[in-house]
Amino acid sequence: MERTTQPATPLVGLMQDDHPLTVASILRRARGINGHRTVSTFHGNGLTRTTYAEIGNRIDRLAAALDSLGVRPGDRVATLLWNRQEHLEAYLGVPSMGAVLHTLNLRLFPDQLRYIIRHARDRVMIVDDTLVPLLKPFVDDIADVVEHFIVVGDGPVDGLPNTVHRYDGLLDDADSGTYAFPEITDDRSAAALCYTSGTTGNPKGVLYSHRSTVLHAIAECMADAFGIAGSDTVLPVVPMFHANAWGLPYSASLVGANQVLPGRFLQAEPLARLIEQERVTVAAGVPTIWMDLLRYADEHEPDLSSLRIVPCGGAAVPRVLQEGFEHRHGVRVVQAWGMTETSPLGAVAHPPHDVAGEEAWAYRTRAGQISPLLDARIVDVDGSALPWDGESTGELEIRGPWIAAGYYEDPSGADKFRDGWLRTGDVVSIDRRGFMRITDRAKDVIKSGGEWISSVELENELMAHPSVREAAVIAKPDERWTERPLPCVVLDQGAEEIGPNELAAFLSGRVARWWEPDEYAFIPEIPKTSVGKFDKKALRALLVDGQLDAARRQVA
Ligand code: ADP
User: Does pTM surpass 0.85?
Assistant: First the structure.
Protein backbone atom coordinates (compact mmCIF):
# COMPACT_ATOMS: atom_id res chain seq x y z
CA MET A 1 0.00 0.00 0.00
CA GLU A 2 1.26 3.39 -0.90
CA ARG A 3 2.02 5.71 1.98
CA THR A 4 1.05 9.33 1.75
CA THR A 5 3.73 11.69 2.89
CA GLN A 6 2.36 14.39 5.09
CA PRO A 7 4.12 17.73 5.33
CA ALA A 8 6.24 17.70 8.46
CA THR A 9 4.09 19.54 11.01
CA PRO A 10 5.21 18.67 14.50
CA LEU A 11 2.42 17.83 16.89
CA VAL A 12 2.42 20.35 19.71
CA GLY A 13 2.81 18.76 23.15
CA LEU A 14 -0.02 19.12 25.60
CA MET A 15 1.99 20.01 28.67
CA GLN A 16 2.12 23.17 30.76
CA ASP A 17 5.17 24.45 28.95
CA ASP A 18 4.39 28.03 29.83
CA HIS A 19 4.66 27.31 33.53
CA PRO A 20 7.53 29.61 34.46
CA LEU A 21 10.71 28.39 36.14
CA THR A 22 11.41 31.13 38.66
CA VAL A 23 13.50 31.96 41.69
CA ALA A 24 10.18 32.72 43.37
CA SER A 25 9.26 29.05 43.06
CA ILE A 26 12.57 28.07 44.70
CA LEU A 27 11.76 30.44 47.56
CA ARG A 28 8.20 29.15 47.91
CA ARG A 29 9.34 25.58 48.38
CA ALA A 30 12.21 26.49 50.70
CA ARG A 31 10.06 28.52 53.09
CA GLY A 32 7.17 26.12 52.79
CA ILE A 33 7.80 22.41 53.06
CA ASN A 34 11.47 22.92 53.89
CA GLY A 35 10.78 25.81 56.22
CA HIS A 36 12.41 24.01 59.18
CA ARG A 37 15.80 23.55 57.47
CA THR A 38 18.49 25.89 58.66
CA VAL A 39 20.75 28.66 57.38
CA SER A 40 23.69 29.49 59.65
CA THR A 41 26.12 32.38 59.37
CA PHE A 42 29.53 32.39 61.04
CA HIS A 43 30.57 35.68 62.64
CA GLY A 44 34.00 34.76 63.95
CA ASN A 45 32.93 34.13 67.52
CA GLY A 46 29.80 32.12 66.87
CA LEU A 47 26.97 31.34 64.49
CA THR A 48 23.57 32.86 64.02
CA ARG A 49 21.10 30.24 62.96
CA THR A 50 17.78 30.71 61.28
CA THR A 51 15.35 28.70 59.15
CA TYR A 52 14.09 29.02 55.61
CA ALA A 53 10.67 29.85 57.09
CA GLU A 54 12.11 32.78 59.00
CA ILE A 55 14.13 33.84 55.94
CA GLY A 56 10.86 33.80 54.00
CA ASN A 57 9.28 36.14 56.57
CA ARG A 58 12.24 38.46 56.43
CA ILE A 59 12.12 38.45 52.62
CA ASP A 60 8.48 39.60 52.79
CA ARG A 61 9.66 42.59 54.81
CA LEU A 62 12.77 43.16 52.68
CA ALA A 63 10.60 43.24 49.57
CA ALA A 64 8.13 45.66 51.21
CA ALA A 65 11.05 47.88 52.19
CA LEU A 66 12.69 47.80 48.76
CA ASP A 67 9.34 48.52 47.17
CA SER A 68 8.88 51.54 49.42
CA LEU A 69 12.31 52.75 48.29
CA GLY A 70 11.05 52.63 44.73
CA VAL A 71 12.53 49.35 43.50
CA ARG A 72 10.49 48.08 40.55
CA PRO A 73 10.75 45.01 38.31
CA GLY A 74 13.89 45.18 36.18
CA ASP A 75 15.72 47.52 38.59
CA ARG A 76 19.15 46.45 39.75
CA VAL A 77 19.78 45.96 43.47
CA ALA A 78 23.48 45.57 44.18
CA THR A 79 25.03 43.59 47.02
CA LEU A 80 28.49 44.17 48.46
CA LEU A 81 28.37 41.38 51.01
CA TRP A 82 30.23 38.35 52.27
CA ASN A 83 28.45 34.99 52.35
CA ARG A 84 25.85 35.59 55.04
CA GLN A 85 22.15 35.23 55.73
CA GLU A 86 21.23 38.71 54.46
CA HIS A 87 22.95 37.89 51.17
CA LEU A 88 20.79 34.78 50.80
CA GLU A 89 17.72 36.90 51.56
CA ALA A 90 18.70 39.20 48.69
CA TYR A 91 19.46 36.19 46.45
CA LEU A 92 15.96 34.83 46.87
CA GLY A 93 14.04 38.04 47.55
CA VAL A 94 15.24 40.51 44.94
CA PRO A 95 14.57 38.26 41.89
CA SER A 96 11.21 37.22 43.41
CA MET A 97 10.23 40.90 43.16
CA GLY A 98 11.11 40.85 39.46
CA ALA A 99 14.12 43.03 40.25
CA VAL A 100 17.69 42.03 39.44
CA LEU A 101 20.23 40.97 42.07
CA HIS A 102 23.63 42.40 41.16
CA THR A 103 26.46 40.82 43.15
CA LEU A 104 29.54 43.05 43.42
CA ASN A 105 32.96 41.46 43.74
CA LEU A 106 34.46 43.13 46.81
CA ARG A 107 37.99 42.27 45.73
CA LEU A 108 37.91 44.34 42.55
CA PHE A 109 39.89 47.55 42.21
CA PRO A 110 37.94 50.74 43.04
CA ASP A 111 37.97 51.78 39.36
CA GLN A 112 36.40 48.50 38.31
CA LEU A 113 33.73 48.69 41.02
CA ARG A 114 32.90 52.25 40.06
CA TYR A 115 32.63 51.22 36.41
CA ILE A 116 30.41 48.22 37.18
CA ILE A 117 28.03 50.09 39.50
CA ARG A 118 27.61 52.89 36.97
CA HIS A 119 27.30 50.51 34.03
CA ALA A 120 24.64 48.41 35.79
CA ARG A 121 22.93 51.56 37.14
CA ASP A 122 22.34 50.00 40.53
CA ARG A 123 19.56 51.97 42.25
CA VAL A 124 20.05 50.41 45.65
CA MET A 125 23.07 48.83 47.30
CA ILE A 126 23.05 46.44 50.25
CA VAL A 127 26.47 46.61 51.88
CA ASP A 128 28.26 44.96 54.81
CA ASP A 129 29.25 47.59 57.37
CA THR A 130 32.83 46.25 57.28
CA LEU A 131 32.93 46.91 53.52
CA VAL A 132 31.70 50.52 53.59
CA PRO A 133 35.34 51.77 53.49
CA LEU A 134 35.77 50.07 50.09
CA LEU A 135 33.28 52.55 48.63
CA LYS A 136 35.10 55.61 49.97
CA PRO A 137 37.48 56.20 47.02
CA PHE A 138 34.66 56.60 44.50
CA VAL A 139 31.47 57.09 46.45
CA ASP A 140 30.91 60.57 45.03
CA ASP A 141 31.09 59.15 41.50
CA ILE A 142 28.18 56.79 42.10
CA ALA A 143 26.00 59.22 44.05
CA ASP A 144 23.91 60.01 40.96
CA VAL A 145 23.21 56.31 40.38
CA VAL A 146 22.80 54.62 43.76
CA GLU A 147 19.87 56.29 45.51
CA HIS A 148 19.86 54.20 48.68
CA PHE A 149 22.50 52.39 50.70
CA ILE A 150 21.29 49.67 53.04
CA VAL A 151 23.95 48.79 55.57
CA VAL A 152 24.05 45.36 57.18
CA GLY A 153 25.45 45.59 60.72
CA ASP A 154 25.74 48.61 62.97
CA GLY A 155 29.28 49.78 62.12
CA PRO A 156 30.02 53.36 61.06
CA VAL A 157 28.67 54.58 57.75
CA ASP A 158 30.50 57.90 57.47
CA GLY A 159 30.97 59.19 53.99
CA LEU A 160 28.01 57.45 52.35
CA PRO A 161 25.97 59.94 50.35
CA ASN A 162 22.20 59.87 49.77
CA THR A 163 19.88 57.93 51.99
CA VAL A 164 21.48 55.43 54.31
CA HIS A 165 19.38 52.76 56.01
CA ARG A 166 20.19 49.96 58.41
CA TYR A 167 19.14 46.59 57.05
CA ASP A 168 17.57 45.35 60.28
CA GLY A 169 15.92 48.69 61.00
CA LEU A 170 14.39 48.70 57.55
CA LEU A 171 13.02 45.20 58.08
CA ASP A 172 11.72 46.08 61.56
CA ASP A 173 9.81 49.02 60.13
CA ALA A 174 8.40 47.09 57.19
CA ASP A 175 5.10 45.30 57.33
CA SER A 176 5.40 41.70 56.24
CA GLY A 177 1.89 41.53 54.85
CA THR A 178 1.95 44.59 52.63
CA TYR A 179 3.97 43.68 49.59
CA ALA A 180 2.33 41.64 46.85
CA PHE A 181 5.00 39.80 44.87
CA PRO A 182 4.37 40.16 41.15
CA GLU A 183 3.72 37.08 39.13
CA ILE A 184 6.71 36.46 36.91
CA THR A 185 5.05 34.99 33.88
CA ASP A 186 8.03 35.12 31.54
CA ASP A 187 10.86 33.13 33.05
CA ARG A 188 13.27 34.60 30.53
CA SER A 189 13.21 37.85 32.48
CA ALA A 190 16.40 38.78 34.28
CA ALA A 191 17.04 37.50 37.82
CA ALA A 192 20.69 38.25 38.54
CA LEU A 193 23.67 40.08 37.13
CA CYS A 194 27.33 39.24 37.65
CA TYR A 195 30.31 40.86 35.97
CA THR A 196 33.31 38.83 34.85
CA SER A 197 36.49 39.89 36.56
CA GLY A 198 37.64 41.55 33.36
CA THR A 199 41.13 40.19 32.84
CA THR A 200 41.02 42.01 29.49
CA GLY A 201 39.14 45.29 28.95
CA ASN A 202 36.23 46.40 31.09
CA PRO A 203 34.30 43.86 33.16
CA LYS A 204 31.36 42.40 31.24
CA GLY A 205 27.92 41.74 32.71
CA VAL A 206 26.36 38.29 32.54
CA LEU A 207 22.61 38.62 33.01
CA TYR A 208 21.08 35.38 34.28
CA SER A 209 17.38 34.75 33.72
CA HIS A 210 14.98 33.01 36.09
CA ARG A 211 14.82 30.07 33.73
CA SER A 212 18.59 29.69 33.42
CA THR A 213 18.98 29.96 37.19
CA VAL A 214 16.42 27.25 37.93
CA LEU A 215 17.67 24.86 35.24
CA HIS A 216 21.23 25.34 36.46
CA ALA A 217 20.16 24.64 40.05
CA ILE A 218 18.49 21.40 38.98
CA ALA A 219 21.55 20.39 36.96
CA GLU A 220 23.80 20.96 39.97
CA CYS A 221 21.62 18.70 42.11
CA MET A 222 21.90 15.78 39.68
CA ALA A 223 23.79 12.79 41.04
CA ASP A 224 26.44 13.04 38.33
CA ALA A 225 27.02 16.67 39.27
CA PHE A 226 27.15 17.34 43.03
CA GLY A 227 24.06 15.33 43.93
CA ILE A 228 22.84 17.97 46.36
CA ALA A 229 19.91 16.64 48.37
CA GLY A 230 17.62 17.89 51.09
CA SER A 231 19.66 15.94 53.64
CA ASP A 232 22.88 17.83 52.79
CA THR A 233 24.53 20.65 54.69
CA VAL A 234 26.16 22.91 52.12
CA LEU A 235 29.06 25.26 52.83
CA PRO A 236 29.71 27.60 49.89
CA VAL A 237 33.26 28.77 50.54
CA VAL A 238 33.21 30.25 47.06
CA PRO A 239 32.02 33.83 47.57
CA MET A 240 28.46 34.73 46.69
CA PHE A 241 29.92 37.40 44.37
CA HIS A 242 31.81 34.79 42.33
CA ALA A 243 29.40 33.47 39.69
CA ASN A 244 26.55 33.27 42.26
CA ALA A 245 28.68 31.10 44.57
CA TRP A 246 28.56 28.62 41.70
CA GLY A 247 24.76 28.59 42.00
CA LEU A 248 24.94 26.69 45.32
CA PRO A 249 22.63 29.01 47.30
CA TYR A 250 19.94 28.32 44.69
CA SER A 251 20.58 24.56 44.48
CA ALA A 252 20.60 24.20 48.27
CA SER A 253 17.41 26.29 48.62
CA LEU A 254 15.72 24.32 45.84
CA VAL A 255 16.12 21.02 47.66
CA GLY A 256 15.98 22.42 51.21
CA ALA A 257 19.55 21.58 52.21
CA ASN A 258 20.97 23.31 55.28
CA GLN A 259 23.36 26.12 54.41
CA VAL A 260 26.40 27.21 56.39
CA LEU A 261 27.69 30.63 55.33
CA PRO A 262 31.25 31.42 56.44
CA GLY A 263 31.11 35.24 56.35
CA ARG A 264 34.57 36.64 55.83
CA PHE A 265 36.28 33.75 57.63
CA LEU A 266 37.78 31.92 54.69
CA GLN A 267 41.00 30.78 56.36
CA ALA A 268 41.74 27.11 56.87
CA GLU A 269 41.23 27.03 60.63
CA PRO A 270 37.72 28.52 60.86
CA LEU A 271 36.64 26.53 57.80
CA ALA A 272 37.85 23.28 59.34
CA ARG A 273 36.04 24.12 62.57
CA LEU A 274 32.83 24.94 60.73
CA ILE A 275 32.94 21.68 58.78
CA GLU A 276 33.56 19.77 62.00
CA GLN A 277 30.92 21.47 64.14
CA GLU A 278 28.17 21.80 61.55
CA ARG A 279 28.78 18.35 60.03
CA VAL A 280 29.04 19.89 56.56
CA THR A 281 28.51 17.39 53.73
CA VAL A 282 29.21 19.59 50.67
CA ALA A 283 31.87 22.34 50.69
CA ALA A 284 32.88 24.11 47.49
CA GLY A 285 35.70 26.49 46.60
CA VAL A 286 38.73 27.20 44.39
CA PRO A 287 41.88 25.04 44.69
CA THR A 288 43.91 27.66 46.62
CA ILE A 289 41.42 27.47 49.51
CA TRP A 290 41.61 23.67 49.66
CA MET A 291 45.42 23.64 49.38
CA ASP A 292 45.51 25.72 52.57
CA LEU A 293 42.91 23.53 54.26
CA LEU A 294 44.82 20.38 53.32
CA ARG A 295 47.98 21.71 54.95
CA TYR A 296 45.99 22.63 58.03
CA ALA A 297 44.24 19.26 58.13
CA ASP A 298 47.55 17.39 57.82
CA GLU A 299 48.85 19.25 60.84
CA HIS A 300 45.77 19.43 63.07
CA GLU A 301 43.68 16.44 61.99
CA PRO A 302 40.23 18.06 62.27
CA ASP A 303 37.27 15.71 61.83
CA LEU A 304 36.31 16.13 58.17
CA SER A 305 34.45 12.82 58.00
CA SER A 306 31.05 14.45 57.40
CA LEU A 307 32.19 15.72 53.97
CA ARG A 308 30.61 13.74 51.17
CA ILE A 309 31.92 15.82 48.27
CA VAL A 310 34.14 18.86 47.82
CA PRO A 311 33.38 20.44 44.45
CA CYS A 312 36.51 22.29 43.36
CA GLY A 313 37.14 24.31 40.22
CA GLY A 314 37.65 27.74 38.75
CA ALA A 315 41.22 26.67 38.03
CA ALA A 316 42.91 23.33 37.41
CA VAL A 317 42.69 21.10 40.47
CA PRO A 318 46.08 19.52 41.19
CA ARG A 319 46.06 15.76 41.65
CA VAL A 320 48.11 16.11 44.85
CA LEU A 321 45.20 18.03 46.31
CA GLN A 322 42.66 15.35 45.44
CA GLU A 323 44.93 12.53 46.57
CA GLY A 324 45.96 14.30 49.76
CA PHE A 325 42.35 14.76 50.87
CA GLU A 326 41.28 11.31 49.79
CA HIS A 327 44.15 9.25 51.14
CA ARG A 328 44.86 11.14 54.34
CA HIS A 329 41.41 12.45 55.27
CA GLY A 330 38.90 10.30 53.39
CA VAL A 331 37.44 13.33 51.60
CA ARG A 332 36.48 13.23 47.94
CA VAL A 333 37.46 16.34 45.98
CA VAL A 334 35.67 16.48 42.63
CA GLN A 335 36.93 18.73 39.88
CA ALA A 336 34.45 20.87 37.96
CA TRP A 337 34.77 23.41 35.19
CA GLY A 338 32.84 26.57 34.55
CA MET A 339 32.87 30.29 33.99
CA THR A 340 30.71 33.24 34.99
CA GLU A 341 29.19 33.05 31.50
CA THR A 342 28.11 29.43 32.06
CA SER A 343 26.20 30.04 35.35
CA PRO A 344 28.89 28.57 36.03
CA LEU A 345 28.62 24.77 35.93
CA GLY A 346 29.65 23.30 32.58
CA ALA A 347 31.47 20.06 33.39
CA VAL A 348 32.10 17.70 36.32
CA ALA A 349 34.87 15.11 36.55
CA HIS A 350 33.32 11.97 38.04
CA PRO A 351 35.11 9.07 36.36
CA PRO A 352 32.98 6.79 34.16
CA HIS A 353 31.52 3.73 35.93
CA ASP A 354 33.72 1.19 34.14
CA VAL A 355 37.17 2.50 35.03
CA ALA A 356 39.22 2.20 38.19
CA GLY A 357 42.67 2.91 39.60
CA GLU A 358 45.06 4.97 37.50
CA GLU A 359 42.55 5.16 34.69
CA ALA A 360 39.98 6.74 37.01
CA TRP A 361 42.57 9.30 38.09
CA ALA A 362 43.16 10.17 34.44
CA TYR A 363 39.49 11.24 34.31
CA ARG A 364 39.37 12.90 37.69
CA THR A 365 42.28 15.17 36.87
CA ARG A 366 40.53 16.49 33.76
CA ALA A 367 38.28 19.54 33.85
CA GLY A 368 35.22 17.32 33.62
CA GLN A 369 32.57 15.72 31.46
CA ILE A 370 30.34 18.20 29.65
CA SER A 371 27.09 18.53 31.61
CA PRO A 372 23.79 17.20 30.28
CA LEU A 373 21.76 19.65 28.15
CA LEU A 374 24.92 21.50 27.07
CA ASP A 375 26.50 21.21 23.63
CA ALA A 376 30.22 21.66 23.19
CA ARG A 377 32.53 21.87 20.21
CA ILE A 378 36.22 22.39 19.72
CA VAL A 379 37.10 24.95 17.09
CA ASP A 380 40.33 25.34 15.16
CA VAL A 381 41.94 28.75 14.50
CA ASP A 382 40.25 28.82 11.10
CA GLY A 383 36.85 28.14 12.66
CA SER A 384 36.48 24.48 11.66
CA ALA A 385 35.21 21.94 14.19
CA LEU A 386 37.72 19.38 15.51
CA PRO A 387 36.96 15.77 16.47
CA TRP A 388 36.40 14.55 20.04
CA ASP A 389 39.37 12.21 19.94
CA GLY A 390 41.09 13.29 23.14
CA GLU A 391 43.97 14.65 21.06
CA SER A 392 42.82 17.48 18.80
CA THR A 393 43.17 20.77 20.59
CA GLY A 394 41.35 24.03 19.94
CA GLU A 395 39.08 26.62 21.54
CA LEU A 396 36.06 25.31 23.44
CA GLU A 397 32.70 26.69 22.35
CA ILE A 398 29.61 25.87 24.33
CA ARG A 399 25.86 26.46 24.21
CA GLY A 400 22.86 25.50 26.28
CA PRO A 401 20.02 26.77 28.47
CA TRP A 402 22.27 28.28 31.17
CA ILE A 403 24.99 29.69 28.90
CA ALA A 404 25.19 33.46 28.24
CA ALA A 405 23.91 34.62 24.85
CA GLY A 406 25.58 38.04 25.09
CA TYR A 407 26.89 40.61 27.58
CA TYR A 408 24.70 43.18 29.26
CA GLU A 409 24.72 46.37 27.21
CA ASP A 410 28.25 45.86 25.94
CA PRO A 411 28.77 45.45 22.21
CA SER A 412 32.55 45.32 22.77
CA GLY A 413 32.14 41.73 23.94
CA ALA A 414 30.25 40.60 20.84
CA ASP A 415 33.23 38.64 19.51
CA LYS A 416 32.83 36.17 22.40
CA PHE A 417 29.68 34.86 20.75
CA ARG A 418 29.33 33.22 17.37
CA ASP A 419 26.29 31.59 15.77
CA GLY A 420 24.64 30.95 19.12
CA TRP A 421 27.82 29.57 20.75
CA LEU A 422 29.87 31.08 23.57
CA ARG A 423 33.58 31.20 22.79
CA THR A 424 35.16 30.29 26.10
CA GLY A 425 38.78 31.26 25.42
CA ASP A 426 39.81 27.89 26.91
CA VAL A 427 42.04 25.65 24.84
CA VAL A 428 40.87 22.06 25.23
CA SER A 429 40.72 18.55 23.87
CA ILE A 430 37.63 16.39 24.43
CA ASP A 431 37.52 12.61 24.35
CA ARG A 432 34.72 10.47 22.96
CA ARG A 433 33.06 10.29 26.38
CA GLY A 434 32.83 14.06 26.54
CA PHE A 435 35.64 14.60 29.07
CA MET A 436 37.58 17.81 28.51
CA ARG A 437 41.20 18.40 29.19
CA ILE A 438 42.09 22.07 29.50
CA THR A 439 45.57 22.76 28.23
CA ASP A 440 45.36 26.47 28.82
CA ARG A 441 43.43 29.65 28.60
CA ALA A 442 44.05 31.03 25.12
CA LYS A 443 45.90 34.00 26.58
CA ASP A 444 48.19 31.82 28.74
CA VAL A 445 49.43 29.31 26.16
CA ILE A 446 53.16 29.05 25.65
CA LYS A 447 54.18 28.79 22.01
CA SER A 448 57.54 27.10 21.75
CA GLY A 449 59.06 26.31 18.36
CA GLY A 450 55.62 26.35 16.70
CA GLU A 451 54.14 23.91 19.26
CA TRP A 452 52.11 24.59 22.38
CA ILE A 453 53.26 23.81 25.88
CA SER A 454 50.46 23.47 28.43
CA SER A 455 51.16 25.72 31.40
CA VAL A 456 48.36 23.96 33.31
CA GLU A 457 49.99 20.55 32.97
CA LEU A 458 53.43 21.85 33.93
CA GLU A 459 51.91 23.47 37.02
CA ASN A 460 50.19 20.25 38.00
CA GLU A 461 53.38 18.26 37.69
CA LEU A 462 55.40 20.82 39.63
CA MET A 463 52.83 21.00 42.42
CA ALA A 464 53.19 17.24 42.81
CA HIS A 465 56.68 17.94 44.25
CA PRO A 466 56.39 17.66 48.04
CA SER A 467 58.22 20.95 48.66
CA VAL A 468 56.37 23.03 46.08
CA ARG A 469 53.54 24.99 47.63
CA GLU A 470 52.38 26.75 44.46
CA ALA A 471 53.54 26.94 40.86
CA ALA A 472 52.31 29.20 38.06
CA VAL A 473 53.93 28.92 34.66
CA ILE A 474 54.11 31.88 32.28
CA ALA A 475 55.75 32.35 28.89
CA LYS A 476 59.05 34.20 28.63
CA PRO A 477 60.25 35.50 25.28
CA ASP A 478 62.97 33.42 23.63
CA GLU A 479 64.93 34.28 20.50
CA ARG A 480 65.21 30.75 19.24
CA TRP A 481 61.89 29.20 20.29
CA THR A 482 59.70 32.35 20.40
CA GLU A 483 58.63 31.49 23.95
CA ARG A 484 59.78 29.17 26.72
CA PRO A 485 58.00 28.28 29.99
CA LEU A 486 59.06 30.12 33.13
CA PRO A 487 57.68 28.43 36.25
CA CYS A 488 57.21 30.84 39.16
CA VAL A 489 57.48 28.65 42.22
CA VAL A 490 56.61 29.14 45.89
CA LEU A 491 58.41 26.63 48.11
CA ASP A 492 57.17 25.33 51.42
CA GLN A 493 58.73 26.95 54.43
CA GLY A 494 61.98 25.24 55.29
CA ALA A 495 62.50 23.95 51.74
CA GLU A 496 64.89 26.70 50.67
CA GLU A 497 67.53 24.19 49.66
CA ILE A 498 65.40 23.12 46.68
CA GLY A 499 66.79 24.74 43.53
CA PRO A 500 66.21 24.63 39.79
CA ASN A 501 68.20 21.41 39.36
CA GLU A 502 66.05 19.45 41.81
CA LEU A 503 62.88 20.61 40.07
CA ALA A 504 64.35 19.83 36.64
CA ALA A 505 65.25 16.31 37.82
CA PHE A 506 61.75 15.90 39.26
CA LEU A 507 60.06 16.92 35.99
CA SER A 508 62.31 14.74 33.86
CA GLY A 509 60.24 11.82 32.58
CA ARG A 510 57.00 13.40 33.81
CA VAL A 511 56.64 15.80 30.87
CA ALA A 512 57.88 15.83 27.28
CA ARG A 513 61.58 16.68 27.12
CA TRP A 514 61.08 19.84 25.13
CA TRP A 515 58.61 21.12 27.73
CA GLU A 516 61.24 21.03 30.48
CA PRO A 517 61.96 24.59 31.63
CA ASP A 518 65.54 25.87 31.50
CA GLU A 519 65.01 28.22 34.41
CA TYR A 520 62.74 28.84 37.39
CA ALA A 521 61.77 31.92 39.38
CA PHE A 522 61.55 31.36 43.14
CA ILE A 523 59.13 33.85 44.65
CA PRO A 524 57.57 34.27 48.10
CA GLU A 525 53.98 34.41 46.85
CA ILE A 526 52.00 34.11 43.61
CA PRO A 527 49.70 37.09 43.03
CA LYS A 528 46.03 36.06 43.03
CA THR A 529 43.05 37.45 41.14
CA SER A 530 39.95 38.82 42.82
CA VAL A 531 38.51 35.32 42.95
CA GLY A 532 41.63 33.63 44.27
CA LYS A 533 43.18 32.24 41.09
CA PHE A 534 46.83 32.59 40.03
CA ASP A 535 47.09 36.02 38.42
CA LYS A 536 49.30 35.32 35.41
CA LYS A 537 48.68 38.77 33.99
CA ALA A 538 50.31 40.23 37.11
CA LEU A 539 53.17 37.73 36.86
CA ARG A 540 53.77 38.63 33.22
CA ALA A 541 53.88 42.31 34.20
CA LEU A 542 56.48 41.53 36.89
CA LEU A 543 58.54 39.68 34.27
CA VAL A 544 58.38 42.57 31.79
CA ASP A 545 59.29 45.09 34.48
CA GLY A 546 62.33 43.03 35.46
CA GLN A 547 60.92 42.46 38.93
CA LEU A 548 61.41 38.71 38.66
CA ASP A 549 65.06 39.06 37.61
CA ALA A 550 66.51 38.59 41.07
CA ALA A 551 64.38 35.48 41.60
CA ARG A 552 65.32 33.72 38.35
CA ARG A 553 67.73 30.78 38.49
CA GLN A 554 69.00 28.73 35.56
CA VAL A 555 69.03 24.95 35.45
CA ALA A 556 72.67 23.84 35.34
P1 ADP B 1 37.92 34.76 35.63
O2 ADP B 1 38.02 35.10 34.18
O3 ADP B 1 38.01 35.89 36.53
O4 ADP B 1 38.82 33.63 36.04
P5 ADP B 1 35.70 32.96 35.78
O6 ADP B 1 35.54 32.57 37.19
O7 ADP B 1 34.51 33.11 34.95
O8 ADP B 1 36.43 34.31 35.81
O9 ADP B 1 36.75 31.97 35.15
C10 ADP B 1 36.45 31.04 34.17
C11 ADP B 1 37.71 30.36 33.73
O12 ADP B 1 38.31 29.62 34.81
C13 ADP B 1 37.50 29.33 32.65
O14 ADP B 1 37.38 29.94 31.39
C15 ADP B 1 38.76 28.48 32.79
O16 ADP B 1 39.86 29.07 32.11
C17 ADP B 1 39.06 28.53 34.26
N18 ADP B 1 38.63 27.27 34.88
C19 ADP B 1 37.48 27.01 35.52
N20 ADP B 1 37.45 25.74 35.96
C21 ADP B 1 38.60 25.16 35.60
C22 ADP B 1 39.17 23.84 35.73
N23 ADP B 1 38.55 22.86 36.39
N24 ADP B 1 40.39 23.62 35.19
C25 ADP B 1 41.06 24.61 34.54
N26 ADP B 1 40.57 25.85 34.38
C27 ADP B 1 39.37 26.13 34.89
Answer: yes
